[in-house]
Fold LuxR family two component transcriptional regulator.
Amino acid sequence: MMRTVDSPIRVMLADDQRLVRAGFRSILDGEDDISVVAEAGDGAEAVHMAAATRPDVVLMDIRMPVLDGLEATRRIVANKALSDVKVVILTTFDLDDYVYTALKAGASGFLVKDTDPVELIHGVRVTARGDALLAPSVTRRLIAEFAMRIKLPPPSKDLKSLTEREREVMALVAAGMSNDEIATRLVVSPATAKTHVSRVLTKLGARDRAQLVVLAYESGMVRPGWLG
């Protein structure tokens, strides 16, 4: 279900703790442009409910019974009928091996569970509009931390298909920049920056910007601290 500009952001909560779900629901349902449409208490239920309700954003706990959040994320992302569904991982820790793996599997970002309500609301909105929740420095640190542990593969043939400008744009995405920030950096219009990002996503077959970040680090295109 493609969300229209005027319709509220439809959110699904997946967490085995009812109190956590209740707290998140209370915060999100208090916003005029956000509506919690489903809840799940384990990973298997999350996969089923995502298919049944097709929310815009799933807030997914990483550790749940029956099926963990990582496998649930993988299954949701693999379902072509759910291509518009964005998954944001919820975790107790800001540096967690599972979080990096989830991002690589197709999650659009992550939030720590004790995040401020304002940041939670912002995170849902950012993810819903397709920008991926990668701006916080802690997220870039996490990706860089685990990408450093991976033996770099030979340059991908897909990466070779990128133009010089597209490679530059991908590197800026990997630095956590929004389309507006990329436009300012390259002295182009935001629309042009968005077009470049879209072309890179298409050429690399990436689900969203989060996967571009992972690919950029794993390929060695950028390294931690590249933009200071």
